[in-house]
Specification:
Strand order of the largest sheet of chain A: 1-2
Strand content of chain B: under 5%
Number of strands of chain A: 6
Helix content of chain B: over 70%
Keywords (chain B): Cell membrane, Membrane, Sugar transport, Transmembrane, Transmembrane helix, Transport
CATH class of chain B: Mainly Alpha
Structural class of chain A: mainly alpha
CATH architecture of the largest domain in chain A: Orthogonal Bundle
CATH topology of chain B: ABC transporter involved in vitamin B12 uptake, BtuC
Order of helices and strands of chain B: HHHHHHEHEEHHHHEHHH
Structural class of chain B: mainly alpha
CATH class of the largest domain in chain A: Mainly Alpha
CATH architecture of chain B: Orthogonal Bundle
Radius of gyration of chain A: 21 Å
GO molecular function, one term (chain B): transmembrane transporter activity
Membrane topology (chain B): Multi-pass membrane protein
CATH topology of the largest domain in chain A: ABC transporter involved in vitamin B12 uptake, BtuC
Number of helices of chain B: 14
Order of helices and strands of chain A: HHEEHHHHEHEEHHHHEHHHHH
Largest sheet of chain B: 2 strands, antiparallel
Strand content of chain A: under 5%
Distance between the termini of chain B: 14 Å
Number of strands of chain B: 4
Distance between the termini of chain A: 15 Å
Largest interface: A-B, 46 and 42 residues
Number of domains of chain A: 2
Largest sheet of chain A: 2 strands, antiparallel
Oligomer: heterodimer
Protein name (chain B): Simple sugar transport system permease protein
Low-confidence stretches of chain A: 333-348
Strand order of the largest sheet of chain B: 1-4
InterPro entries (chain B): ABC_transp_permease
Chain lengths: ~350, ~325
């Protein structure tokens, strides 16, 4: 098989295709697309559009997880960015300033997380827990406890407008994914991030400025969360500090894990994380259009996590080694390389 | 003095100072009535926090607590109101189911060698999803047993009441303290949290202890759901969203090291009380908004986590001087 063709046959693509196919069986009109009022409509577009906020979170989360970290605060950062945008637009500031301020709020949150991890040496799950707890309180302080609504057409455009017939969130998602992939893969940045994920002290001794890189990675995650927060606020034309982005950090982590990025750090793929987010959203939409109660979603997500965990676990790798003795490979001993072998082996 | 006592002392000092300041502003806060209400209102949180303390002491984390509380409350309500079971039978079934749930999570964490937070994340989705399958609405519980339980209370001097729920929480804490500091299981948990590899080499049954820790956590979350159903006389599938964060915060503010191995069950009780006191203060003040609770708790979390870093650094220096300083703490 030629290499470009082969790279498309990944378990994630097969899973996405299967879910879409299942949706089509349950709801025959699933692949229908309409062109109305200069914009495409249809369930497929809906999957991309609704999946965009989680996909954008997942882009930042991928970089964080690649350094063996985790960012639990992205949902709260979304709330803060949305609150800043909605409040400022309500005060009559120009759109450019509003978006810059919301993005700056995300950057500051990311900088805070990054500093705790890189400078104070806290465990990432603990460092970001602080902002996860306090963040919604901060967002509520900004909105003074109200759900701030707005009618500014420019800001609403970020959530429900369209460019070239596609909804704005999709364009933002694709652009950000492409830029981030280029930044990480066309330069040595991706390699540096992976090096920190594999062994931070070794990479520091090798001359990497791991502190600055870590701070940068968390700041990037905060930036992505802010974009996602602006989209979420624009979508409902208001900032709901209590509920926007609630549990989305978990969806984002799930998307990254589905995308094949190792939670142990050192191996990541931004496009696959976006595919992971789309898989989650395809399941969401499928459950909705086929008439099941939306709460089914939680069960399906739980089942998905369990399947991935079992498949990626070192235990499955060991079992696979005994089932397939034709592979002349030494038994996997280091935890870092086992998930790779087991995923390929069991899912193909 | 052993640096390991610093977090506990800091917690108690903060509690005493904050309480004294609050009492200076509102003398009415200094009454057993406030204390009694504080215990009753935070009883379900406290019961769940005892389980979370075990999990965090063992070096893990349990994100499923809030969902298990909701699940347990709804299951109890369904069993009593729709199947007509006696509440005690419903409690037994619920606690059994919850314990099995926790054991399964523990087994997955140990045997699949995956981070605890991702397994318990799946548990969180699963428990909440099953709860929604049971019901989408709030189910009221009207049973003579619930009215009977509610008339149990102890009147403290000053008129404050320790209700059944508040008393149960204190008993759970007492049992938790004994289990953590005076039993073999407790020592295993501390050993596991201190260093899992050394613990295994020293003969600690790692699999049994890990499974036990998550079983205890889910059992207590189930008990917490029962307390919650006694408190609200209903089962509601959207109840206790985010309670896992509040319990984690209480454990950390109580001085338990999030990396595991160091901490005291008693500190968690103080952590719960501090959280309850912040809420009571906001109610007394009247001008502050409820979200200040989150910001203050976030700030306290930050302060304690930074202090823990300092302590870890200090205890490493300490350890170089005298190795015996690392002996297991006891209460």
């Amino acid at each position: 098989m030629s290499r470009p063709l082969r790279s498309f046959i990944k378990p994630q693509f097969i899973a996405l295709a299967l879910i879409l196919l299942l949706n089509w069986i349950l709801f025959p009109g699933f692949f229908n697309l309409f062109f109305r009022d200069g914009r495409l409509y249809g369930s497929l577009i809906d999957v991309l559009n609704r999946g965009a906020p989680v996909a954008i979170l997942a882009i930042g989360m991928t970089a964080v997880i690649a350094t063996r970290g985790i960012d639990l605060s992205v949902g709260a950062v979304m709330a803060i960015a949305g609150a800043v945008a909605a409040t400022m637009v309500g005060d009559g500031h120009p759109l450019f300033l509003v978006i810059m301020a919301a993005l700056a709020a995300g950057l500051v949150c990311g900088l805070w997380n990054g500093s705790l991890v890189a400078l104070l040496g806290l465990q990432p799950i603990i460092a970001t827990l602080i902002l996860m707890v306090a963040g919604r309180g901060i967002a509520q302080t900004i909105t003074e406890g109200f759900i701030v609504t707005f009618n500014d057409p420019g800001l609403i455009f970020m959530g429900s407008g369209s460019i070239l017939g596609l909804p704005t969130p999709i364009i933002i998602m694709v652009t950000l994914a492409a830029l981030a992939t280029a930044a990480f893969r066309l330069t040595a940045l991706g390699l540096f991030v992976e090096a920190i994920g594999v062994n931070r002290s070794a990479s520091t001794y090798a001359g990497l400025r791991s502190r600055a890189l870590l701070i940068g990675v968390y700041t990037f995650a905060g930036f992505c969360a802010a974009i996602s927060g602006i989209i979420a606020a624009a979508d409902i034309r208001g900032a709901d500090a209590n509920n926007v982005g609630l549990w989305l950090e978990l969806d984002a982590i799930l998307a990254v894990v589905i995308g094949g990025t190792s939670l142990m750090g050192g191996r990541f793929s931004i496009p696959m994380s976006v595919v992971g987010a789309l898989i989650i959203q395809a399941m969401n939409t499928g459950i909705l259009v086929s008439g099941f109660p939306p709460e089914f979603n939680l069960l399906v997500k739980a089942a998905l996590i369990i399947v991935i965990l079992v498949v990626q676990s070192p235990l499955a790798g060991r079992i696979w080694y005994f089932i397939a003795p034709s592979r002349k490979r030494p038994p996997p001993s280091s935890p870092a390389e086992t998930p790779a072998t087991s995923t390929e082996g069991t899912l193909k | 003095m052993n640096v390991r006592y610093w977090p506990l002392i800091a917690t108690i000092t903060i509690f005493v100072v904050a309480y004294a300041l609050a009492v200076m502003q509102f003398p009415a806060l200094f009454s057993t009535r406030v204390l009694g209400n504080l215990l009753t209102d935070n009883a379900f949180l406290g019961v769940a926090a005892v389980g979370m303390t075990f999990v965090i002491l063992s070096g893990g984390i349990d994100l499923s607590v809030g969902s298990v509380i909701a699940f347990s409350g709804v299951l109890v309500a369904v069993l009593i109101s729709q199947f007509g079971l006696h509440p005690l039978a419903a409690f037994a079934i619920t606690l059994f189911v919850c314990t099995c749930f926790g054991s399964t999570m523990g087994a997955m964490i140990h045997y699949l060698e995956v981070p605890a937070f991702i397994v318990t994340l799946a548990g969180m989705f699963l428990a909440r999803g099953v709860t929604f399958l049971l019901t989408q609405d709030s189910i009221p519980i009207n049973h003579a047993f619930y009215d009977w339980v509610r008339q149990f209370y102890y009147v403290m001097p000053g008129g404050g009441r320790i209700t059944f729920n508040g008393g149960l929480m204190l008993i759970v804490f007492l049992v938790g303290i004994v289990l953590a500091h005076r039993t073999r299981f407790g020592s295993y948990v501390y050993a596991l949290g201190g260093n899992a590899q050394s613990a295994a080499l020293l003969g600690v049954p790692v699999a049994r202890t890990t499974i036990g820790v998550y079983a205890v956590s889910s059992f207590l979350a189930g008990l917490s759901g029962i307390v919650y159903s006694l408190y609200t006389s209903s089962g509601y599938p959207l109840a206790a969203v985010g309670v896992e964060l509040e319990t984690i915060a209480a454990v950390v503010i109580g001085g338990t090291l999030l990396s595991g191995g160091v901490g005291f069950m008693f500190g968690t009780l103080i952590g719960i009380t501090i959280q309850g006191m912040i809420q009571t203060y906001i109610v007394f003040d009247g001008t502050l908004s409820s979200w200040w609770t989150k910001i203050v708790i976030g700030g306290l979390l930050f302060g304690f986590i930074v202090m823990q870093r300092v302590i870890v650094a200090a205890s490493k220096r300490d350890w170089r001087k005298k190795p015996y300083a690392q002996s297991a703490p006891s209460l």
